[in-house]
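W.,

You were right to be curious about this one. When I first looked at the sequence I had no strong expectations either way, so I just let the prediction run and decided to look at it fresh. Below is the sequence, 333 residues in total, followed by the output.
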Amino acid sequence: MCASTGRGAHDFAAQPLLLGNAGATWPDTVATLSRMNGKLAHTSSPAHWRTRLDQYWKLLRGDRPIGTLLLLWPTWWALWLASHGTPSWWTLFVFTAGVWLTRSAGCVINDYADRWLDPHVERTKSRPLATGAVSGREALAVFAVLMLVAFALVLTMNRLTILLSFVGLFLAATYPYLKRHTYLPQVYLGMAFGWGIPMAFAAVQGTVPPLGWVLYAANILWSTAYDTWYAMVDRDDDIRMGSKSTAILFGELDLVIQGILYALVLLALALAGRQAQLGAFYWLGLLVAAGLIAWEFRMARHRERGPCFKAFLHNNWVGAAVFAGIALHYATH
């Protein structure tokens, strides 16, 4: 048939190939397909997927568990106090897994809200959303999946706990946007981070007694204080970019107000201990926590970035000391 039309194979190869580009010759098309195949091979390679998973892991802050621990300790305080030291294994699992899921979701939505700011801040410019390694749509999808899994766990609890979880979702989703409008996002963070406390009492006792709200108030104060250390690290960058924080609000009085906040934390925890009729081990744990807090002020006394960040990290041990006091009290009674 080629002979009857007067075209040989060499003539056909020279004709334009209509594959979306009328001017593309057969060699051009082959080269394009080769490049596409190379990209496809690259995206399907194990190395590519390891890199992608690593970026998602960083988005979840899986490489930085401090946030999970700071959220976990108050939740465990509440579970042990609500159950008098004997939370059921399933309730303990639901709340422990829920802490990781909601903290990870909070990090994702925080980075999504700050994707305009993070590239300009030294500490955050390498985050996956800031570098473009993860897209905004991908981040929202990850946030939705994490919250759905967390909600599936909550559905195994009682009705009050389920209802309270909607408040927790609202707090977690709206917190990142407050830094644009108020100097008190750290206070709101405390409200979001501590919401596991009333939920824990609701899950165990079917109600939230005054003790639960006292503990919740203690956590709001504590979160405000330790997150102010964190905000002091970014203070110069935040001022330059127009972001707001308690560190900026407190100004030169930051260390004084930090001292007041931590004193109120210890006072609220002491009140919780009295309401729960806790014994010597709890008060010893609270004394250790007070000593650890004093050490934070020694570390951060010059307001330098590195020491302020270390003071923030140090709060993990404060939470652990309080929990140890609660757990030891119930273990010996």
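Here's what jumped out at me. The chain has one domain: 57-331. And, maybe more interesting for your project: Residues 57-331 form a domain with the Tetracycline Repressor; domain 2 fold (CATH 1.10.357.140).

Coffee later to discuss?

I.
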